[in-house]
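Justification of resources, computational component.

The compute hours requested in this renewal are based largely on the per-chain cost of generating structure records like the one below. Each record pairs the submitted sequence with a full structure-token output. That output is archived, and it is also reused by downstream analysis tasks.
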Amino acid sequence: MTTRKNPAIMKGIIYTRVSSDEQVKGTSLEFQEDLCRKYCEQKGIEIVEVFREEGESAKDLSLNNRKKFLGALEFCRKNKNQIEAFIVLRVDRFARNTEDHFAVRKILHTYGTSLHSVTEPIGNKPAEKFIETVLAGAAEYDNAIRIQRCKDGMLARINQGIYPYQPPIGYTCQHCKKRGEKKNEPDPPDEKKFLLIQKALKEYARGIHQQKEILQLLRQWGLKTVTGKNPTPQLVDRLLRKNLKFYAGIVMNPWTGEEKEGLHKPMITKEEMLQIQLVLSKKSRGLVTKHDKYNPSFPLRRTVNCGTCGIPLTGSSPRGNGGRYFYYHCQNKACAMYGKGIAKHVIETDFMDFLKHIVPKYKLLVVFKESMVDLWKERSIQFQTEIKRHKTYLSLLEAKRKRIFEMREDGSYTIEEFQQRKTEVEVEIETSENALKSHQIDDFDINKALTYMIDFIGSIAQKWPVLDPLWRRRFQKLLFPEGIPYFRNQGFGTVKTALIFEIIQTFTSQQSFSVLPGEISWNQIIDELEKWAECAKEAEGMEIPVSIHGE
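The structure output for this chain reads:
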């Protein structure tokens, strides 16, 4: 056992704590430490260490909540029988739970350390122990009262239709807590994020998208999280599940589950919320049932349209003497083709032939790839030039914005002139930033992307029959975004194909590219390649050998 060299001097540590950011910014910690030091001076205690707990709660003793406190206990353990005093301003700075208070006090006792309160007469005498017990119980009572008041206040906000917590993405947080204020108004919509999430929710309610497709759409539309990052699958899941009722204008009591009509602006209607819930549970008839969307017996449903009326063909399998007979047919009663079925093997054989017809020869695809890579190299130089130009212009605009603020401060601008000039320059900045983003695609490996795409497209007619039904339809949607018209006894009509096929068709007639065809941009080409790569990966478990937008 180690003993102190100078038994005449008592050694101790000081522990101070505040439980909110507002107190940290003030003088509470310094005030506590100052009184503790004066106490040690009066009692002849040598201060060995000071432990400051900033903005932490004394509700429990978990490491994540009170790191400095546990650090102080560990310090006493390592210096057993050397630290005799654990000094706090008041007992409630030590713990707000009677059971924890005496449990920790007992631990300190085994280390040869006693608890000292600067403002309260506690100690080892019977009367002092009694007072300490009363004070520890009072601290626990005070903490319970605070929790109940907080709960009552939050419940009052909920009953008013105001969400008392930080709002989900799509709404602007008012940061009332940081300002020490109570939230008395509903959270307003975030001007940009609100519309994007609203659009995504309405799309999902239609029952034709998977969550991964919604994620892809949100990324394409430019949604960013509060921290400026791209949306994740977890974020989409929160939008559709955890935050769905809030988006429908509902505020829920977390203790009872009771729902209240919220005062905030809803993104979707109650009907749309129910539709999304049905889609998620796969109980929505005619929208997301497995038979409707993924029936392997009719892989061309919802892809092939009636050539007469344009309505997507459906399928049926009536039973006859020879078993079941499979037919595609038009479901539009007003159409001349209603009731006139097309044998499954006929239309699917025609589809296979159609795929072979539209897929370019492999040699042509290779030449096309080489031309695209050459054009990309030329454009990359222009991209870098444009990027430098936009960055320079942005620097000038930022300087201009700074001058506008300075002129407002020195009185050169009235408030109206300042607001007008500020708005003008900020619009210019946003426009220039968007233009800069459109050119920052030089990290995309187009050579690998094209190699991957060409290998896949070149064999798609052979791969289609063996694909999983779920991913087969996704390929069909990518190949024929508007569906394929089919005429009974005639075959397929004119069809709009994927963007990449249109580009290849243009190349076929020119045999080379000096510029991109029509109004097509490089961003559109990259997005198209991303779709092909993502679908192929999901359908066949292939790795994507490309660097897509730096992700």
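The two ends are 59 Å apart (CA to CA). The mean pLDDT is 77.
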